Amino acid sequence: MQTRQQGTHSGRPAAAILHVDMDAFFAAVELLERPELVNQPVAIGHNSPRSVISTANYPARRFGVHSALPVAIALQRCPRLHLIPPHMEKYAAVSKQVFALFEEFTPIVEPLSVDEAFLDVTGSQRLFGDPVTIARQLRQRIREETGLAASVGIASNKFLAKIASGFAKPDGVYIIPLGSEREFLADLPVKKLWGVGPKTLKLLESRAIKTAGDLALTPLDTLTRLLGEKHAKHLHQLSLGIDERAVETERERKSVGHERTFEVDIVDRQQVTKTLLRLSAKTGERLRAKGLRGKTVAIKVRWAGFETVSRSHSLARATDSTQQIYAVASELFRACDRGEPIRLLGVRVEQLTDGSGEETQPQLWSDVFAGVDGGSGIGAGGAGAAGAAGTGSTTDAEQWERLEKTLDEVNARFGGSGITNAGAL
After folding, report:
1. Distance of CA 238 to the CA centre of its chain
2. Under DSSP, is residue 368 helix (H, G, I), strand (E, B) or coil?
3. At the fourth CATH level, which superfamily is domain 1-179?
4. What is the value of pTM for the model shown?
5. What is the pLDDT of residue 252?
6. How many CB atoms lie within 10 A of CB 113?
7. What is the CATH number of domain 255-424?
8. 187-228, pLDDT tens digit by residue?
9. Helix 322-336 / helix 382-389 crossing angle, nearest 10 deg
């Protein structure tokens, strides 16, 4: 196990934020049932031309196999790769176990995904000891309860804790003592900072800014001219080890949506229509299940040449209706359709709000295209799409709402989305 010594400052704990990251989570869960493959290269993904790797274990990573890598390339790099199809319900169940263990040590847990979270253990130290002791106890409990390994980064803030967990992998603990942040960051590649993508990296490297230490020594006004005020300030603070964000127990969901990547690029627009309806149905179902509604409907289209476009449209009132989501998604697609083969389609709803308020539910189907934000590319033709969802009467809207709720109840009772709009078949 890797550790750095803990320090103190002004009588308070040296580091109180943990970033816990399960090691090769999906693959590790599968290997619990297939221990004979533990030391073999294993990856999770469907063996199909368009699939990508979701997780690879460490033996597979030595061959250059990693998440988001196309399966075809992974098999070229590692012909002996054991490819296991994903079982999301299995991973979700184990994730629930792990998060229950997090909450035994602190109620302040911020999930980042099914296999990682931030934990604020500031108030837990009198009960469980210093952060390193807590990390060791937590990792032991996770191994005892699930048989899985976790890596833990410890620091005084979220940014540093997440960086530290990367140094802890695999199966370790790494702490950045308070007061040593600048020293730790001095040689860290600048691309490791949150917010440094390819374009920003190119700009920084053009000024010989290659490490966080270089960035920290660069005058803020110079960075502002290069990156803009907001981005420059954000990166400069990170380079100094400053991150004032608290661990949030309830993270605001920004969007709900679904995507589909096709095994073979599709040209048939009738198939596009059916896919948009299926994606809209899944999105609406998830919104209603979570008691959410959204004001903006967006689509994503990836053409055969990998160019990806996104289009969105803001409604006058928030909605959770499959029919309204589909009506807008269809118009958005028609407005950007090039007639080219399509590799991927996605539908999502943004600007989410609690669906409990009466004012958030559109009262008339004609409201679907009211209050255009000007950026959607939808004009007067939108009214036609709204008509596809209903006749424009409140009665129709209420009938659709009752129908969708009934379908949700039936599908929830019998599992999956077995009953859907006939147009999606």
Report:
1. 22
2. helix
3. Reverse transcriptase/Diguanylate cyclase domain (3.30.70.270)
4. 0.67
5. 64
6. 10
7. 3.30.1490.100
8. 999 999 988 988 899 999 999 999 999 999 999 999 999 999
9. 150
